[in-house]
Amino acid sequence: RRFALATNSGTAALHMCIAACGCGTADEVIVPAYSWSSSATCVLHHSCIPVFVDIDFRTMNLDASKLEAAITPRTKAILAVHLHGLPADMDAILAVARRHGLKVIEDACQAHGALYKGRKVGALGDCAAFSFNQNKCLCAGEGGMFVTNDEALLAPAQQLWSFGETRAPS
After folding, report:
1. Angle at Cα 80 formed by Cα 75 and Cα 84, nearest 5°?
2. Environment class of 56 (CB within 10 Å of its CB; exposed 0-12, middle 13-18, buried 19+)
3. Is the dihedral of CA 156, 30, 106, 66 positive or negative?
4. 19: which residues sit within 8 A by CB, 6+ positions away?
């Protein structure tokens, strides 16, 4: 990814993803019904509504065939989780998102180095979160990373990251 911001955790990186995608009060964010709690609680912390969609039991990830039924006029983003190192069906998720003008956030906190059709997860959606927690396959004891290629998404993520500061010190 072109831009990366170090965080204190993968959860913090997910918060930055929600902020970067412009999700706010009463916006809906689609999340898988099976995941680590941070995938949904980061949505709640931004006064958004997590909309749970069932999983595909082959991968234990979001079932892309059930996405369309969950989309409403208030849906702003899809949070795809690559759980247990298994990539979500990103082609199908991205196709639905693009049809409906939605952002795609990748929770790659448990999928460092995982490949989806030869491409690394975390590099497929609009932005992504990684975790370096002691229980992850790429461990630094703690920490996380927000990543994106979109400079417009970087700015709100940086603002959250720096407690609202909008300019560099002179």
Report:
1. 155
2. middle
3. negative
4. 46, 156, 157, 159, 160
Q: Which amino acid is at 60?
A: M
Q: Find the catalytic residue in 76, 103, 117, 136.
A: 136
Question: What pTM was computed for the model?
Answer: 0.90
Q: How far apart are CA 91 and CA 151, in angstroms?
A: 23
Length of the chain as a residue count: 170
- Taking only the tens place, the pLDDT of each residue in 8-23 is 888 899 999 999 999 9
Instruction: Give me 141's structure tokens.
Output: 């004891």
pLDDT confidence tier of residue 85, bands split at 50, 70 and 90: confident
Whether 136 is a known active-site residue: answer: yes
**Looking at residues 88-115, what average pLDDT do you find?**
94
- Whether 137 has a pLDDT exceeding 80, the answer reads no
Going by the DSSP 8-state scheme, the letter that residue 87 receives in this structure is P
Grouping H, G, I as helix, E, B as strand and the rest as coil, residue 102 is coil
Across 41-67, average pLDDT: 95
Closest CA to 61 of 42, 77, 39, 83: 83
Q: Is 69 helix (H, G, I), strand (E, B) or coil?
A: helix
Contacting residues for 123 by C-beta, under 8 A, at least 6 apart: 1, 147, 149
